[in-house]
Amino acid sequence: MKNERLHHLVLLLNRLTLGALFFLAGIKKLIPTADQSFVDMLTGFAEQVAGMAPLPEPLGLAYGYALPFVEIVAGLLLALGLFTRVAAVVIALMLLSFMIEFGVAWWPDSGPVFDKNVIYFTLALLLAVVGGGGWALDRQVKIKRRG
After folding, report:
1. Residue 146: Cβ-neighbour burial (10 angstroms; 0-12, 13-18, 19+)
2. CA 33 to the chain's CA centroid
3. 8 Å CB contact between 127 and 1
4. How far is CA 55 from CA 28, 63, 94, 119, 135, in A?
5. Are the CB atoms for 135 and 84 separated by under 8 Å?
């Protein structure tokens, strides 16, 4: 019983931190500054992504426009534990795309010894495989469906 509670607590902490990270990253990309409107911020971000992405420009732009909104929705769902596995897969795929674009700093002389995206990726994979745990809304929805 004690191990089960610890298991649920660790999954909850994983969901909350990874979900908050993505939720806040998406929000940050959409907050207008004093000299830029919301549309200018979003367009600038999408164009920046399209310029970096190893994709044809229309796909890069679409990815850039969608990314902040997907980060917000997936992060919120993950933190709540609702559609946890789907949200975790979406986040893992986003992280994989980041690692493909920016690479992974494996060696000490190339930056961080171990890239944070690799760590986030493994945490997202963990949640995709095992789910959100007993303290996730997924479990409450499942219980109501059975009852």
Report:
1. exposed
2. 24
3. no
4. 24, 9, 14, 25, 39
5. no
- pLDDT at residue 29, as a whole number: 92
CA–CA dist 1, 102 (Å, integer): 43
Nearest Cα residue to 123 out of 3, 7, 12, 18: 18
In angstroms, how far apart are the furthest CA atoms of the chain?
A: 57
pTM: 0.88
pLDDT in tens, 14-70: 999 999 999 999 999 998 888 888 898 999 999 998 888 888 899 999 999 999 999
Query: pLDDT of 85-97, one tens digit each?
Result: 999 999 999 999 9
Nearest 5°: the CA angle 146, 91, 58 is 125
The contacts of residue 79 (CB under 8 Å, 6+ apart) are: 15, 16, 19, 20, 23
Rounded Cα–Cα distance for residues 51 and 63 (Å): 11
